[in-house]
Amino acid sequence: MNYFIVVEDDKKTQETIKGVLRKIIINKEQKFEIKYFTKYTSELQSIIADDSIRKIYIMDIELDTKVSGIDIAKQIRKDDWESEIIFITCHDKMFETVYRSVYEVFDFIEKFHKMEERLENDLELIIQKNFDNKMFIFSSRNVDLQIYYRSITHITRDKEERKIVIHTYSNKFKISMNLSEVLSRLDDRFIQTHRSCIANRKRVQEWNWPKGYFILDNGKKVDCLSKRFKKEVEKQ
Questions:
Q1: How does pLDDT run along the chain (236 residues), one tens digit per residue?
Q2: Model-level pTM greater than 0.90?
Q3: Which of 16, 20, 24, 49 is 20 to 30 A from 116 (CA-CA)?
Q4: What DSSP string runs through 28-67?
Q5: Helices 69-79 and 42-49 meet at what angle, rounded to 10?
């Protein structure tokens, strides 16, 4: 599922964006859902925190509230570097401010300079991009879980509860499986680093074998690195 998240408080501009989105998604095989907001809300925050969905944000920079589009984008980029962000504004002088404040913005579009044409082109490019949509899927009587592989940073075993804990940047999910079963369901980006841990190699920034820890690309330190698994980790 692809989500278009539109944050725009000008009704005329929002209608223009709606028209572009209708044109874009027609006859596409992928499934899309569109959410509209005029300001930062608890529902928008929940969407930002949900790392199980692919999101494309289309946002005005200057909203009629204390929380600007730039503020929202900073919140997005705290944990999410995958979703695309397109900024729309009346003021071309905001260009430098945006690029200094927010990591990896897909585009910056002026409302009164070929906005519809540029937005349509941007969205077509984004949709056509290869998207890593492999998912870890688990179902039980009490749990239905679907998590993108790319969102998983590492997986640990909780000895007290005798459960597996799947870690993402913003959440933890506990399931009743053993570590080897989980590893068998994953692809080769995942490697066992400890008898109680599996790591997503693409999310690891540093391996520290002498001290027995690795550091994720969000700066988090994980003390689950055993020399017993060094050969396998380095081989891959």
A1: 779 999 999 999 999 999 999 998 887 777 889 999 999 999 999 999 887 788 999 999 989 899 999 999 999 988 788 789 999 988 766 666 666 667 788 888 988 888 999 999 999 888 877 566 788 988 887 778 888 888 899 999 998 888 999 999 878 899 999 999 999 999 999 999 999 999 999 899 999 999 999 999 888 999 999 999 998 888 76
A2: no
A3: 49
A4: -SS-EEEEEESS--HHHHHHHH-TTSEEEEEEESS-SSSS
A5: 30
